[in-house]
# Entry
Amino acid sequence: MTALTLSTAGAATLRADALVVGVAKGPKGPVVAPGAEAVDTAFDGKLAAVLDALGASGAEGETTKLPAPAGLKVPVVLAVGLGPAPEQDESFDEEALRRAAGAAARALHGSKKAAFALPLEDASAVTAVAEGALLGAYAFTTYQGGEKKASAAASKNGGPKRPLAEVALLGGKPRDKEHKAAVERAVVVASEVNTARDLINTPPNDLTPAAFAAVATATGKEHGLKVQVLDEKALVKGGYGGIMGVGKGSENPPRLVKISYTHPEAEKHLAFVGKGITYDSGGISLKPAGHNETMKCDMSGAAAVFASVVAVARLGLAVNVTGWLALAENMPSGSATRPGDVLRMYSGKTVEVLNTDAEGRLVLGDALTKASEENPDAIVDVATLTGAMVLALGNRTFGIMANDDAFRTSIHEIAEEVGEASWPMPLPADLRKGMDSPTADIANMGERMGGGLVAGLFLQEFVGEGITWAHLDIAGPAFHEGAPYGYTPKGGTGSAVRTLVRLAERTATGDLG
# Structure
C-alpha cells in the first residue's frame, strides 16, 4: 500500500513529483484553502486567479495540474476542489477533505511521491486526509499487464499505472500524539478497506469459498486471531441447511468461517456476520443476461466483516469481536436446490425456497443463529442482499434495519461520521405475513414491494431472543460500476468496513449512544 508520513517540511522546500493544494468554491470564484500559503506566494499571490483563468471553480473532486513556478522544489502543482468554502470560523468538512485527498491521489497514479498541503486543522482532519489519500491511491492490477505489469514501460505503453507510492502530509505534527495516532489509525483502516476491495475484485474462479477461508486462516495467524473453518462435512453434520442448501449446486463446496479477536480488558462482545456468496448465478432461478457479470461482488459483506475484525485486532481495541463469514457459491446443477424445496436451517426452522436467487438470507440465517449462541452484546450483519434496496436508496447509500431503534440510530450516526452514506429503514410487521408458507415455517420470499424490508424481516427470525441486532444492506455501494470519484474506485469499494471499525471503537470506549 502507499506509504504515508507526516512531514514538517515546508511546501516550498519539499522535493516531490507533485504538490497537492486545496481550492474551495467561493462566491466569486476559486479560493485557495489553508495549507497552500507558500504555494500561493510562489504564484505571486495569484494562484486563485490562475486557476480561475483555467476554468477551475473549486468544485468537489475537480483537479487542475499546473507547472510549478520558481521557488518550489516540485515540477507540478495539483489543485483539488474541496467544494463550497466554509463560513467564517468554520472548518472544512472531514468528508470533503477525504474525497479531495482521494481525487488527488487518483490523479497522481504513476507518481513516486506527492506532498499534500491540504487543511490540517486538527487530528480529525489528519485522519480524513490520510484515509482519503490511501483509499484514493488504490488500484487492483493483479491480473493486468502480465510480467510487465509493474514496469514503467508497461505504463507508457498503456498498461496499468502503479498507485502513488508515497504521500507526505504537510502541516501535520509528527511529534504530536494525536496527529501520530491519527495517521496510524488511518493506515490500518485504509489498509483493511483495501483488503476488502482486493477480495471483492478477485475473480470467482480464484476466490472460491475454500480459498476465502484459506485467506482468513493465514491472516488470522499473522495477527493472532483464532480462526475456525467448518467445511461441507461439518456443515452437513451440524445441520446448517441454509448454507448447504445454497452451496450444494456448486463443485466448490461452502464454508462457515469464525474469526475471533479477544482483548483482556474487553467488557463488550460484538458479532459481525457477513454474506459471502463468492459467485451468484441465481441458482436454478438463473439471473437474466446482463445481471451476472458483477456477481463476484456478492461476497462483499463477508469481505467487510473479515477486514473489520482484522482492523480491530491491529488497532488493539478493548472489545471482543467475532466475525462470521457465510461462504458459498450459488450455481445451477443437478444437485442444486430447486424452487419448492424445503430446507431445515441450523435453528431448526424450516424454509420453503420459492426463489433460489434469494440465497443470501439463507446463508445468513444459519450464521445469525450460530452467532447468537454466544450471546454477544450486539450482532451486525452486512450483505449485498437485495436489488430492492438499490431501487430505494440508489447506488451510494446502504440501508440500516434493526430490532432496536436506538442501535439503528447509533449505526446511522457512526456511518455518517466516517463518511459512509446510509439511511435507517423500518421493519414493518405487516410485511411478515407475506412470507407465510403452507408447507414450511417460513418462505424465503414475500411481497415484491418493500423487498429489502422483507429480507430484513426474514433475517430477524434467526436472531437470538433478546440480542440487539442490525442489518446493513450494502447492495448499492458495495461495487461501483461507474467512473471513479473521490476516494471511491471502480469495482469493489470496501463499503461498511469503516462503519464497523468505528462501531467497535465506540463500543470499546463505552461511547455508544
